[in-house]
Structure prediction request, 444 residues.
Amino acid sequence: MRYLPLTEADRRDMLAVIGAPSVDALFRDVPETARAADIDLPPHQGELEVERALSAMAAKNVAAGSVPFFLGGGAYRHHVPASVDHLIQRGEFLTSYTPYQPEVTQGTLQYLFEFQTQVALLTGMEVANASLYDGATATAEAVAMANRVTGRRRSVLSGGLHPHYREVVDTLARFVGFRADAQPLDPDGGEDLAALIDGGTSCVVVQYPDFLGRVRDLRPLAEACHAKGALLLVVVTEIVSLGALTPPGEMGADIVAAEGQSIGNGLNFGGPYVGLFATRDRFVRQMPGRLVGQTTDAEGRRGWVLTLSTREQHIRREKATSNICTNSGLCTLAFTIHLSLLGEDGLTQLAAINHAKAVQLAGRLAAIPGVTVLNDSFFNEFTVRLPKPAAAIVDRLAERPIIAGVPVSRFLAGHDDLLVVAATETVTDADMDALVTALEESLR
Prediction:
């Protein structure tokens, strides 16, 4: 196909249809610094020269596995077995696209069915879909679903919800037309979400563990929601935690939205990731995305089909409940393979190792003069209060190089002294030694 550039008349016609006065107006939501960036690229070169140039650029990055690494905040470094990458690159998996024709995509449908089963068991829910894009969009879809189920248009968002997830919900609320009341972050844990529920509340959204790593019993909040006809929506950004914690479904959650990156998927500079979504049977017809079901063919053989997909915009756009018309197929497959390799006992053991590492690190950091651990409960992530601005400390330690954690001020103003620290199974005693020593020196 030849490249035929658009004419100015073509651009004017498209802008007129869209309703934008100019190209700049069309892209007004993109920060000015990004739009006006002067990218200094050399003239065209040969393949060898390009490889050298790109390798030199890549060498400036600090790889997560090459230094002591304590980042969390919604994306976690876990060990992914080499067998996962090997299996997902098999031709019958890698070249599969869409399961619209079940007679030729039984393998794809079968692993999606198994994935759904895994997610339902992990979350303690009755039914799960075939995945969404990521945890943040799954959360926004869950709020929209709660609005449909209840017929209400107001949601209450915990201050402990990841700020990025909150922003995605806010964006959907702005364009779809519902109210999202986000609470401020309360580092002291005094948030009372039950008091905010009224007759117009469709759902309460709470993260488990929350953005600061705190774990709470959700049963009282679930009871308060149900007493006033609202749904409890639980968000899980660290899915490995459900190998140790009580599943949200057992505490009364009506919808669970989660990020599945921690199982089978690397950090990958922020994506692609895989959104998990589960709910109760009685709400299944309002659930976004695809649902794969098991059936039998005319000869009585077991098989798989798309049980529910007519709600998607590619089938009945005018009656769609969601703009989700696909799933994170390859990431879903990686999740399914990794979790299958772990098994129930393996996941439990992995979660126990994560928690033990975090407990060990929290104890060591708490012993540093001026450092306070805020959490009285956590899984593999917790928050410390520092006597100096956390962002400056993180920058200073990065020069050593040690990636010390996530300054809360990076997301939310007014919390300059808070640092979120994560310790997964990949953290070694030597990593902890390096962090403790460097932090002690930086706080003197």
Remarks:
- The first helix runs from residue 8 to 18.
